Amino acid sequence: MEEILEILEKNNKLTEEQIAVMLGKSVQEVKEAIKKYEDEKVIVGYSTLINWDKTNKEKVITLIEVKVTPQRGEGFDKVAERIYRYPEVKACYLMSGGFDLTVIIEGKTMKEVALFVAEKLAPLESVLSTATHFVLKKYKDEGITFEDKEKDDREAVVL
Amino acid sequence: MNIGDMILPHVKSVPPSGIRKYFDMINEMKDAISLGIGEPDFVTPWNIREAGIYSLEQGHTHYSANAGFIELREEISRYMKRKHGLEYKPREEIVVTVGGSEAIDAALRALAGPGDEVIIPEPSFVAYKGCASFCGATPVVIDLKAENQFRLTPEQLENALTPKTKVVIIPFPNNPTGAIMPGEDMARIAEILKDRDVIVLSDELYSELTYEGRHMSIASYPGMKEKTIVINGFSKAYAMTGWRIGYACGHRDLISVMTKIHQYAIMCSPTTAQHAAIEALRNSDHDVESMKREYNRRRRAMVDGFRRMGLDCFEPLGAFYVFPCIKSTGLTSDEFCEKLLAEEKVLVVPGNAFGECGEGFVRATYANSIENIFEAIKRIERFVNNCRK
Ligand SMILES: Cc1ncc(COP(=O)(O)O)c(C=O)c1O
């Protein structure tokens, strides 16, 4: 039933009935599988991808590279948690390589984001350094191209 | 001078494709959904497109060898081995053509002439009959039956074979029915053909789109490889219809004469497409797999949709077509398609466009988004219910 995940990841607007038909399973089976995935936190949530640039809402997205000292006994997880619990943090990943955490922050203005870094993030005891990068434009997110130029240009009838 | 009189009678008598009128109708419409298209909705995977672009950037804009770049023929040879266990020598037994279409044409031109019979199971892709007729050969049609899941049966084949039979076309997975020939069915066909003096033209364009079991090439049965020309291409599996590239594999004597025809008529296949095709064979198995999984989900959705509205619909296990029977609506195929388009703005193609025995059926393509498919099913259901009132 893992194909359900593949389907939902692309389009979670499909109904359980439709998914059942697409997989040749009963609606009951699909319902149960989805429930199980949700209970087990395989399906963690459902969200909608929005191109905010097309709205009037001001948004500033920032990617911050954070270097931290891991805590004894708890490694990076505890530090990460102290950071990702802030609602401003959209995403937080543990990284290999030159720094430890990628933190993606969303704010209304650059100033707001800068303040967050200066007042909340940088002062944390285990944070050694931060490097802040502002996102200028999103071309693609979650596998979806924002300005997709590829229209269905097929001729209407072809043998 | 009457221009019409200048045209050869056996060319003139071949009817043009019967579905152009729908094209004009649908072009006037907004929000129409076309399930009438015989090509993938996917765009060619990016790595393949990129390889084509890169070849242009590098200035690879010249002719290739007539039979195609040797690197491409080597890749095709490896592909045939890995997919079907068939060994073809890249230098002698493979020719790269302008789509499978050109391979069909070249093979028939090499083999079929006046007095020769070409066996064509129908409903089928329209080019076989057209090309055979252009050569002056006589098409001998076998009417495939819904009750046999549109498979070719040994009895049907036996009945169609005559001493004049020169070529037998094996068109599976089939356009327009979506039928496949599972191994045991194909074995029985091969058994009949292996001792006959006929050449088999096996059109395997949809081989990758087989949803149950594995596609079996008729060439892989004992005694069949020598007498079979396998035709395949990139259009369907790799979503490369517009690139115009395909190929034929077979006995060196057949391939060399097809290469000769290709050389005089075409020179060589587009080289940009050849570079892209090399990339396709080297690095795109996972794209083919993922498109196939997607098609399979749509296939189930569509078959289920037609069955729910009470239309008989055998389960197509190949290609990307569903071929429901619409006789219960009381309409002919043509009427069904015309009215459906006018009333609900959904286009499907009349089954008889693919041979007379397709009357009473329509072809619906599931090479379309799942959202469009669900919407189209809803509209067709409304239409069918209205017909029955
Ligand atoms: C059964 C069949 N064979 C061959 C072709 C031709 O394909 P190509 O694009 O390779 O010429 C088609 C195209 O619709 C087809 O349906």
SS strand fraction of chain B: 5-15%
Outline type of chain A: extended
CATH topology of the largest domain in chain B: Aspartate Aminotransferase, domain 2
CATH class of the largest domain in chain B: Alpha Beta
Order of helices and strands of chain A: HHHEHEEHEEE
Oligomerization: heterodimer
Instruction: Give the count of helical stretches of chain B.
Output: 14
Structural class of chain B: alpha/beta
Helical residue percent of chain A? Answer: 25-40%
Which regions of chain B are unreliable across 5 or more consecutive residues at pLDDT < 50?
none
| 3D shape of chain B | globular
Class inferred from helices and paired strands of chain A: alpha+beta
Number of structural units classed as domains of chain A: 2
**CATH fold topology of the largest domain in chain A:** Alpha-Beta Plaits
Strand order of the largest sheet of chain A: 2-3-1-4
The helix/strand series of chain B, from N terminus to C terminus, equals: HHHEHHEHEHEHEHEEEHHHEHEEEH
Named CATH architecture of the largest domain in chain A:
2-Layer Sandwich
- Going across the biggest sheet of chain B, name each strand in turn: 2-8-7-6-5-3-4
CATH architecture of the largest domain in chain B: 3-Layer(aba) Sandwich
What are the low-pLDDT stretches of chain A, counting only 5+ consecutive residues below 50?
none
